[in-house]
What does this fold into?
Amino acid sequence: MDALTAAQTAARLGVRTETLYAYVSRGLIARERGAHGSLFDPLEVERFARARRRVTSPSHGAARAAGADGSPLAVIDTDIALIEDGELWIRGVPIDELVSGEGEAPRFDAVVRWLFARTDLPPRDAPPLEGPGSAAASRVLAALPPGAGAFSRLLAAVAALAADDPERYDLRPETVARVATRLVAGLVDALPLLGPEEEGIDGASTAAGMSVAARLWPRLTALPPTPARVRVLDAALVLLVDHDMAASTLAARAAASARAHPYAVVAAGFGALDSALHGAVSVAVHALLRQVQDGADPAAAVATATRLGGAGIPGFGQLLYPEGDPRARLLLRLMRETADPRAEAALQVAEQIVTVVRARTGLHPTVDLGLAVMALAWEMPADAGETVFAVARSAGWCAHAQDEYGRAPLRLRPIGHYVGPDAADLQRPGSNAR
It folds into this structure.
């Protein structure tokens, strides 16, 4: 098993090396002596990191624990997502009620329309989101290098869609709603097809009338869709539509506060989401799953992923959910309910990792694990989870923008606290420094 050095362990815990050795001397964390110094078990380090972090209620935003999981700069009112008592609510509706069930129509399109309509309850059915019907974004994406990643493709699509939308600067609520639905659908429609678009997979009679999830499926995998598979993808989109004031959402709201148009708001969000600590976590989880699928020892694979990532075990331990991420539970449960042999095989791989991590650290899976399992099961690219995350959250960012446009402009402009050198202390060329 790959071990962490003292320097790596201290960095993970956010302490000085001297403090780390104080923990060792008090018996709080174990070490092994190697040829080149002390070595620490990555899983033991992660368990200790979580144990020493005081977890506070998400409702007390200003008192949340500092560190890698977030230290709030301010408390920002939001009427979209609430995380309380280990559960996620969207506009007062529990997230599990928003996710489609057996035999129900896809829900993501209805949830997006509901976010902008600002009614009390989402409709049980709604027409699919319609894209702008422009080929400009597809042409731009076709010109990208073959190895362009998910966020590169989506950023290019946003820029192309913005250039082709004459309503983008109209920030009235009803116009923002129209622009946002075109934007979300346009992102999906611009992506290249990996498999055929099959009409009627979710009850639609034509490809143009298919849900966002049904249109996204052949852009993520060449495997044929089934109603159960598309329902899982649709659920993933709903589960990721918003999640409190994440770093990317703060970036998006700051842009909206400056009265950037919705496309620019989404681009700002993408800039923060394109991070190994945020929107791209599922890529690291996918790599971990593949290693175990290929025969690697689960404990050794987890230790290696923890050491390389430097920020905990990828796919485990969401600070806002000490008892487990409800989004992960829902997504993994829906995958089990498909009775799909590919899904069952991927879930078995994931269970080996979950067993090791839970026994050694007590940590629970996050939604990133669910995204990675979905990608592994259905032969999607390693960055498919990024695409799903970005498409879903773009709708949430636009809803935040719609709200922010109704507030005082530039209200999210913080004031810096200068901590640099005093100008009087600087030695300039030609001065009489002794």
